[in-house]
Amino acid sequence: GAVVSQHPSRVICKSGTSVKIECRSLDFQATTMFWYRQFPKQSLMLMATSNEGSKATYEQGVEKDKFLINHASLTLSTLTVTSAHPEDSSFYICSASGSGGAVGELFFGEGSRLTVL
Amino acid sequence: DAKTTQPPSMDCAEGRAANLPCNHSTISGNEYVYWYRQIHSQGPQYIIHGLKNNETNEMASLIITEDRKSSTLILPHATLRDTAVYYCIVRATDSWGKLQFGAGTQVVVTP
To answer: Rounded to an integer, what distance in angstroms lies between the CA atom of residue B87 and that of residue A110?
Structure first.
């Protein structure tokens, strides 16, 4: 079946640095990708919708200048956490839709755990 | 998208069927019921989805009531590897894949 891959799976960085997380669709073209954040013992919270070739749409309360999203190709979306701080430590998960949102299963990546020291 | 209500936790004995309920009383006619599960520190895994008919695949069965206001996910023979948080989500066909996750049900399968 379709696979979505995230890299890196774990990253530790110092406060103030920027971290890039990649989300790739391995065997299908993803016109739309979604980025979620999950804090410990909480559910997934949608951060933004990433559309290939256009600007991402951010959910209310998510800072677009802090969480930069680029969806330059049909198989790759990247999330960059700029000037990371300890409160940005979280589990970041992407999902991809290859059918433009039509009914069907959505595929999730394995997640990327960010720890900011 | 309509909201869903699930019990926060459920225990199940290994080898027995696990029946996970979900209420979605405000579901609209164009909204599907989806089930995902998340094993600790992994991304969510798709299980099954349906509109109004009952569905079955190799992982589970989905029973949707006639009025579509509730559904039940059935894991026919629970194993220890089925321990996870199970999310019931309703999704409109025009939602472009955007899912709103609730709190889900923490299922613990015990020997």
So the answer is: 17
| Pairs of residues, one from chain A and one from chain B, whose beta carbons lie less than 8 Å apart | 63
Taking CB atoms and an 8 Å limit, are B93 and A109 in contact across chains?
no
pLDDT over threshold 90, residue A17: yes
In 3-state terms, what secondary structure has residue B80? helix
Q: What would the pLDDT profile of B31-48 be if each residue is shown by its tens digit?
A: 899 999 999 989 999 999
Q: Does B29 touch chain A (CB under 8 A)?
A: no
Chain A contact for B93, CB < 8 A? yes
Confidence (pLDDT) at B94: 66
The residues, any chain, with a CB within 8 Å of residue B18's CB and separated by 6 or more, are B10, B12, B74, B75, B78, B82, B107, B109
Residue A103 has pLDDT above 70, yes or no: no
